[in-house]
Amino acid sequence: MPIGLTPRLLGRDEIDRALGALEGWEGDEHRLRRVVVLPPERQRPLRDAVARAEQDMTHHARVEQSRDSITFEVWTHSLDRVTDMDVELARRIDAAVAAVGSSG
């Protein structure tokens, strides 16, 4: 069942605090981004775990996959800005990365 958050825009100071608590993320008021380095055989389990989080939140990341990494980029498309929903999705992506096991 979706969690039904209403997106709340975050100021730069809130984003900086959130980035300090997230693993390997960078960004600003418009985008949060993390590159996860992991072998190809670990990528599908990570993508699946992130897809479950996205479905639960009804909020989605832009995902780019290469041979040895996956890049996640989150923002609230309707506002073209970072909101509290993006920070929550980033936390869930971090939890998925930790569960799958990776570096980066």
TrEMBL record:
Root EC class: lyase
Q: Which reaction does it catalyse?
A: (4aS,6R)-4a-hydroxy-L-erythro-5,6,7,8-tetrahydrobiopterin = (6R)-L-erythro-6,7-dihydrobiopterin + H2O
Q: Does the keyword Transmembrane apply?
A: no
Q: Which UniProt keywords apply?
A: Lyase
Q: EC no.?
A: 4.2.1.96
For the keyword Acetylation, the answer is no
For this protein, the record's Gene3D superfamilies field holds: Transcriptional coactivator/pterin dehydratase
**InterPro entries attached to this UniProt entry:** PCD_sf, Pterin_deHydtase
> Which Pfam families does this one have?
Pterin_4a (PF01329)
Q: Which family does it belong to?
A: Belongs to the pterin-4-alpha-carbinolamine dehydratase family.
Tell me what this protein is called.
Putative pterin-4-alpha-carbinolamine dehydratase
